Amino acid sequence: MALISTPLTGSNYLGWSRAIKLALGAKMKLSFIDGRSVKPATGAEDYNQWIRTDCMVSPWILNSISRNIVGAFMYTTSARALWLEIEGRYGVSNGPLLYQLKREIALTSQGSQSVTDYYTKIKMLWD
Length: 127
Prior knowledge:
The chain is mainly α. The protein has two domains: 13-90, no CATH class; 95-126, no CATH class. The protein has six helices and no strands. The protein is elongated, with a radius of gyration of 18 Å. The protein starts with 12 loop residues before the first helix and ends with a helix.
């Protein structure tokens, strides 16, 4: 089962990560990737439940990654480790891209666009 309709391709990381976070938040499983849900000690009362849930969250994320790149993430040990691996690879700040986006925002004008279209364009660049 894929949580979101657009798979991660690498270049779409920011939008993809936002969509995954929203989807996991809706399912009350965001804590498995943001570090709030810590693996209990082996033998603890909630250990088996935590393992089952973590084993459910990981495939949700993996199924939301493009087939071309998913192989690089198949052997992570938890949903949190998977998230950190993806974030480390694609979430790194890209100076030239950031410059280009700031420049596009600065040079964007409404022109003949409707206010709604103009706002949407600016919002997409800003996000």
